[in-house]
Amino acid sequence: MVLVVDDGNNPEVEVKTGKIAGFDFGLKTFLTCSDGTKIESPQFFKQSLNAIKKASRQQSKKLKSSSNRERARKNLVRKYEDISHRRRDWFWKLAHELTDKFDVLCFETLNLKGMQRLWGRKISDLAFGEFMAYLEWVAKKKNKLVVFIDQWCPSSKTCSNCGHILESLDLSVRQWRCPSCQSVNPRDENAARNIQVVGASTIGLGDVSLAVPAIAV
Asked: What is the pTM of this model?
């Protein structure tokens, strides 16, 4: 069974799970799925920060151009390589896990450079852009589809229950009550559900309530 995308540009999707999901990227939780699942980032650099600092101090204490300094430099490089290898391994495993669970995966386009300026090293440690590159590669190999919606979509400010849009929503607010339908919306899960709905609409599935039957047919 396949889902044929109507714009003629996207590949056919091999239906294995009949499921579509939206995902919200966050600083505290790496990914929040529209089904309520939360995926925490191991934050590999943060885990290894003390070891990195220690190796850096050891290098700085060695005499310049000495063999001891060179050994200390190589030790520091190995610390960084270990972080990169562990992060890459986690990304591969997560990409396979998500593409085994869902046929269509929807994400919001992010301004990663702007986020880097605001939050610096934490964004580098999360390496969301790197993860997406792995996910897209794995999805293509499995004939799954990764969909991106516009970054200006008010996914966090829109009530996923009734569609009411707040005028503003401070970043510190993690949960809000809709003034229209009174439903309580956890910020990240609410955003993920809206990303799912918009992503489904983007590829011609319409209302997400019809998306699963449409894929499964």
From this structure: 0.81
Banded model confidence at residue 12, pLDDT cuts 50, 70, 90: low
- pLDDT above 70: residue 180: yes
**23 in helix, strand or coil?**
strand
β-bridge pairing 145-149 and 104-108: parallel
Whether residue 79 is contained in a domain is answered as: no
Provide the domain count of the chain.
1
The verdict on residue 145 lying in a domain is yes
Residue 94 lies in a domain: no
The 10s digit of each residue's pLDDT in 94-106 is 999 999 999 999 9
| Long-range contacts, 160-166 (Cβ 8 Å, 24+) | 160/185, 160/190, 160/193, 160/194, 160/197, 161/185
Alpha-carbon span 106 to 187, nearest angstrom: 17
Domain housing 141: 2-45+103-216
Is residue 91 domain-resident? Answer: no
pLDDT digit string, tens, across residues 135-168: 999 999 999 999 999 888 889 999 999 999 999 9
Query: Quick count: other Cβ atoms within 10 Å of Cβ 97?
Result: 12
